């Protein structure tokens, strides 16, 4: 059986641009949450977000691409550039059809789409950009990354919202097992505009608390919804022998196990599918619950959803049976970018032997019975479980293992 390993990371997050800036901020507990600035959110009940504030697109994106890309796609292109550079890979040295691209999306480049539809309604069709034909598309990140780097391997996009970052990596591993040497994978999202904001408000799951330090408190007795964010992570996934043969400088870890499930229909009486996804991922990795050193939780921040996840974790690991963390409290939930960023964070945690904190939450609610990590915790980490749930019942679980060649 071939082995899929991660050799490059590219992170664009609300609390840090680039791997080490993000990781330093995360360990320091520095939050990227704040009042929305990308549009006037004052008329809306939710007004806090995790924005990638210091990103200047012109510093990273060629001028010819600026008119045809949305903020989301520019972040994704930058993250892909960084992942390839971090992995030290020269795409020209691999077979022409050797590198694939599989990313996750929640709905596409909604900011671009909103702007062009406003032009259509207010000015007429002559003022709509020709790039509207594809720039809004949910597969645009995959397409633009493929074109920019001339990657002609298998490509795809997963639309499972927050679970998508894990699902894309599961599909990347599938391509590795089919014999392709490398896949660019992960997720980057950005929907902080009215067109991306209103559907999330309609879900009834968003926090309406205006204090950024109190707005998103997963597993807390004061949990009152989630805060959206933008950004994510792109990962370079390679076949281990191929990475070794080209002399890859760093192997962050192995994608050891993956599984996905769907929740049953409401009212069916059957339990949610998150625990089953975790169990199947552990079985796929050939490990037991006792082998997991840390869990990166989905951490919905919604009381009922937090309770369901806590029950899944205690059912699998026992009460207080494994350290649980949610560093996304510093970024918000990044839609399709969230789980990919959690996987990248887990790999950095394995590398450095430290569990990043869940900020602003003093302790998990007593009835959750979780060992919630609220301060950086040094630990001998070998194997991590990353969980994610997407809106309308998608569940995904990924086991990553520290690599020992």
- Biggest β-sheet description: 12 strands, mixed
Count of helical regions: 11
Q: Class by helix and strand content?
A: alpha/beta
**Could you tell me the strand content as a percent range?**
15-25%
| H-E order | EEHEEHEHHHEHEHEHEHEHEHEEEEE
Contiguous uncertain segments of 5+ residues: none
Chain-wise SSE layout:
Elements: E1 4-13, E2 16-17, H1 19-27, E3 33-35, E4 48-50, H2 71-87, E5 99-104, H3 110-122, H4 132-135, H5 140-149, E6 155-158, H6 164-177, E7 182-189, H7 194-202, E8 231-239, H8 240-245, E9 253-262, H9 274-285, E10 294-296, H10 303-317, E11 323-325, H11 338-352, E12 354-355, E13 371-372, E14 377-378, E15 383-390, E16 394-401
Parallel strand pairs: 5-6, 5-7, 10-11, 10-15, 11-13
Antiparallel strand pairs: 1-2, 1-8, 1-9, 3-4, 7-8, 9-16, 12-14, 15-16
What does this structure look like?
The protein is α/β, with parallel strands linked by helices. It contains eleven helices and 16 strands. The strands form three sheets. Strands 1, 2, 5, 6, 7, 8, 9, 10, 11, 13, 15 and 16 form a twelve-stranded mixed β-sheet that branches. Strand 10, helix 10 and strand 11 form a beta-alpha-beta unit. Helix 6 packs across helix 11 and helix 9 packs parallel to helix 10. The longest helix is centred in the first third of the chain and has 17 residues. It is globular, with a radius of gyration of 20 Å. The mean pLDDT is 95.
